Amino acid sequence: MIWLKGLRSVLFALALAGALAWLFSARAAAWWLAGFTLLYAIAQTAFLAKLYRWGGLPRSREVPISTGAWEMVLERIARFVKSEHDTREALQAELAQVHAAVDQLPDGLALLDQYDHIDWCNNAATELHGIFGVGRPIHHFIRHPGFVAYLEGEDFGKPPVLPLATRPGRLFELRLHRNDDGTKLLITRDLTELARVDAMRRDFVANVSHEIRTPVTVIGGFAETLLEGDDDPDARREYLTMILRQSQTMQRLVEDLLTLSSLENADAPPADERIDLHALVATLVDEAQALSQGKHGIGMKLLAPRWVLGAASEIESAVRNLLTNAVRYTPAGGQIGVDWRLRDGDGLLSVRDSGIGIAPEHLARLTERFYRVDRGRSRETGGTGLGLAIVKHIAQRHGGNLQIESRPGQGSAFTLRIPASRLLPHPPDQGEQPDQAQSTAK
What we know:
By secondary structure, the chain is an alpha+beta fold.
């Protein structure tokens, strides 16, 4: 087809020249052929000039239009250009989506060429390192000697962990990945939380080991003494009593650890059980009086709704921990009060004591695991150092919080806030006996 279109004009000119020679003369045919050749050459030259001009900016200009054999060639070129244009737009759209997604990453990403100049970076890298523009060396923006040495070295397996001026108080890992073409990808990752968790893990292991060391040492020492065959019955009873007491301390520690672990790892919200808080507090106050052995005055005032929604075992554990702490840290003759009242619609369960009080610098850390104001006194009273951490997690699981007020020498108040959504203004059992409720709230 392209041959026919290419020769059609030539065959037409030759046929017309033969007709002119037959009708007029060979001279007329020669003039016609000369004129046709000249016009054909001018037309082809003009078209080639258009094609040349289009070739200079093929993406910004339309493919020129022609006739004859060029028409088929240009149609194919036009289809190719359109396909290439559509493909380029699709790739640009995909690349824009990738860049938009990468810009949402919290980690900083920067692509470096073989000379460590910045080819591209995402928003996080721009903000973390203050990068502006491309083509500049990365060490113009990250000047820390540790990173410069890492960048110039051959081993990228040990990335430095450094602070950044743009994020004071936080630590970042700057890791390089080498590509096959000599370029490098710099990933900046915030490791502050991981470092904090790792420090907490180390502290936790150290604290547990420290807490267990004393009872294990005591148990081992008295067991060795018993094995030596001391026949004094009173001494044997004393040794066995100490062994039992220390084993109970270890048991309480294990139980508190398991409780705290289950609270921290619990994904499901607490069960919405109906809890008779008045009866629960009354029972726990009786336990506290037994623990006190008459050394403290313990009273309660229950003015808020009797029934609450929550996990009964968890609420019981929280209140028991608060009462037990009050008994342990209040000197003999002191007063302990339990107050259940409403404020702004929420229920506030407060355990107040006239104990030794706590200095202000310790209040913010009281709910940390194993944190103690006075380690020696805590061990003497049998505390594990986990009680307030347990109470805090129980409060948070129920949508509330733990509030602490204390002054040295003036006692302390620990308040468990239960949100209004968990309070039931009316008892679920309408047939409840009035005298039962009255006796509970004495």
